[in-house]
Amino acid sequence: MSTHPQPNLAAEPIPQFDLSAQYATIGAEVRAAVEHVLSTQQFVLGREGAALEEEIAALCGIAHGVGVASGTDALLLALRACGVRAGDEVLLPTSTFVATGSAVSALGATPVFADVRPKTYNLDPSGLERRVTPRTRAVIAVHLYGLAADMDALVAFAKARRLPLIEDCAQAIGAVYKGRRVGSFGDAACLSFYPTKNLGAYGDAGMIVTKSEEIAARLRALRNHGQTAKYLSSEPGWNSRLDEIQAAILRVKLRHLAEWQRARRSHASEYTRLLVQVPGVMPPHEPEGCEHVYHQYTIRCERRDALQQHLATRKIGSTVYYPYPLHLQPLYAHLGHKLGDFPHAERAAREVLSLPMFPELRKNQIARAVEAISEFVKC
Ligand SMILES: Cc1ncc(COP(=O)(O)O)c(C=O)c1O
C-alpha cells in the first residue's frame, strides 16, 4: 500500500484567501481616502457614494447604479423593484450562497430551484420551463465563482415568458459574456462588496445596477424609507444606504481591480496548466466567449473531503463553496425536496473544492498546492 510522503512541517501556510496581503499594498491610499471622508464629516449618501455608483455602472456598461448596505439587500430590493411580492415564485439555481434564496423568502415569495450545468455550476436554462407556474414572477441568474451564466439562453427564456431577469453578480464583478460585462443583461443586477469579494469593502456594502431609469428611481426610494422627497414616503422601504467610508474605500480599490483580475486569471491559467496532468481532478471550465474573474478557483474531485484534509496537513487552505445546495437546506425543508431532485448540484456539493486564490498569490504557492494534490491522487 502506498502512503503519502511526510508533510514538511516548516512549510509556510498558504491561506485560501489573504486580505492582509492586499492591505499591505494599498493601505496608504485607503487611509488617505478614509481621512478625506472624515474631513468632510459627510457619512451617508454623499459624493463618494454617488461617484462609486457612476463608476460601477460604467464598469458594468450600464446607465444606473444604486448603492445599498449589502449584496443581500441588493437582491431583496431588486426583487421588490421588479415587482416580486409575497406569494410569488422566483426561479433560481440551487447551487448558490443561501442569500440568493433567502432574499426571495424574506419578501414572502417562494424560491423555485433548478439544477445547474455540471461543468460551469451555473443555472441550466433547459430545466426552467417545466418549473414555471402561473405564480412565477422573476428569474435570478447567479454567476457563480466569477463565471457568467448562459445569458443568451436565460435572456431568451425570460423574454419569452415576460419575466424580469435579475443577475446575482455578487461573485462576478467584471466577468465577461460574449463581449459584455455581467450586470448588463438583466432588468437589474446585484453586486456584493463583502470584504472577501473581488472588489471588497471593509465591512458590508452592495449595489444594484440597472438600465432602467424607473427601476433605479424606485430603488433609490426603497433604500431610504420609500422617500421620494425629503420626509415624503410613497411606499414602505427601510434603511439600506451605502455609507461614505465604504464607498471611498471601494473607489480606491476599484482603481486596482483590473490589475487584480488579471492576476487572478493568470493564477488560474497556471493552476490549470499544472492540473491538467493530474488524473481525477477537474479544473474549472471557461466556456468560449466567457472571461471568468476567478472569485474562486474551484476544482472537483470524487474524494474531495479526503483531499481537503490532505491539503490541510500541508498547511494549504481550501474551502467548500457550498456543501449543501439550497433545496437540501433545513431552511427549505418545507418545500419538500429530497436527495436526487437536482443531481448535478448535489454532485457538485460533494465534489467541489476551492483552492487558494487571491491576486497576491505566488507561482511557487500554486506549484506547492498542485504538488500536494498530485501526491494525494497517487495514493
Ligand atoms: C452568490 C451570492 N449572492 C449573494 C450574496 C450576498 O451578499 P452579501 O454578503 O453582501 O449580503 C453573496 C455573498 O456573500 C453571494 O456569494
Description of the structure:
This protein is of the alpha/beta class. 38% of the residues lie in helices and 15% in strands. It is built from 10 helices and 14 strands. The protein has a 7-stranded mixed β-sheet with strand order 1-9-8-5-4-2-3, with helices on both faces. Strands 7-6-12 form a 3-stranded antiparallel β-sheet, with no helix packed on it. The protein is globular and about 70 Å long. It binds pyridoxal-5'-phosphate (PLP). Pyridoxal-5'-phosphate binds next to α3 and α4.
* Small ligands present: pyridoxal-5'-phosphate
Give the C-alpha Rg: 21 Å
Gross morphology is globular
Order of helices and strands: HHEHEHEEHEEEEEHEEHEEHHEH
Number of strands: 14
Question: Overall mean pLDDT score?
Answer: 97
Poorly predicted runs: none
Helical/strand content category? alpha/beta
Kindly summarize this structure in a few lines:
The protein is α/β, with parallel strands linked by helices.
What topology does this entry show?
Elements: H1 19-40, H2 47-60, E1 64-68, H3 71-81, E2 89-93, H4 98-106, E3 110-114, E4 136-142, H5 151-161, E5 165-168, E6 176-177, E7 180-181, E8 188-192, E9 206-210, H6 213-222, E10 227-229, E11 232-233, H7 244-275, E12 290-291, E13 297-300, H8 304-313, H9 343-351, E14 352-355, H10 363-378
Bound molecules: pyridoxal-5'-phosphate (PLP).
Pyridoxal-5'-phosphate (PLP) binds next to helix 3 and helix 4.
Short key terms for the protein model shown above:
three-stranded antiparallel beta sheet; alpha/beta; 10 helices; single chain; 379 residues
